[in-house]
Design goal:
The longest helix has 43 residues. It is built from 3 helices and 6 strands. It is elongated, with a radius of gyration of 32 Å. The protein is an alpha+beta fold and 151 residues long. It has a two-stranded antiparallel sheet with strand order 1-2. α1 packs across α3.
């Protein structure tokens, strides 16, 4: 954190090396971009881990009919034909619940998980490299400023 100094009744902010490093890290656009990329990579890892769980599909339909003629409908979600006779005023309900999971995926799920983790680790390493460069540059510039003032 930066220090505060009281000189002749005025409060002045004293810039320290640690505060200048923190300021540079908080406003550097490359680091902010890598933080966003890490969030996306984390989401991809979570999505790839969800491949181990079964997929659940729930479909509920309600239709009201007042037909003047016979109607034959094809219910695509349930894949069967429904016949509504003439003059019938009814409500038509359809419900579908399906749960399915791939029994054998040829190790594709494990490979997808591994690739997502590798991608996230790569992005974290790149972010650490950029952070190190920024910290090094700030320290060099800060120390050059201190040196030039003392000479």
């Amino acid at each position: 954190m930066s220090a505060w100094c009281l000189l002749a009744g005025r409060i002045e902010k004293v810039l320290t090396e640690a505060s200048s490093v923190q300021l540079a890290l908080s406003i550097n656009p490359d680091i902010l971009e890598y933080v966003e990329n890490i969030e996306h990579a984390t989401q991809r890892v979570k999505e790839s881990r969800l491949l181990y769980f079964p997929n659940i599909n729930l479909n509920l339909n309600l239709s009201s009919f007042n037909s003047r003629g016979s109607v034959i409908m094809y219910n695509e979600s349930l894949r069967f034909l429904v016949c509504q006779p003439v003059g019938k005023k009814n409500l038509y309900y359809s419900t579908r619940l399906s749960i399915w999971q791939s029994v054998y995926s040829g190790r594709r799920i494990k490979a997808a998980n591994r690739l997502a983790e590798i991608s996230m680790n790569k992005i974290k390493n790149e972010e650490n490299i950029v952070k190190s460069k920024v910290i090094n540059n700030v320290k060099v510039i800060f120390n050059d400023c201190l040196y030039s003032e003392n000479c």
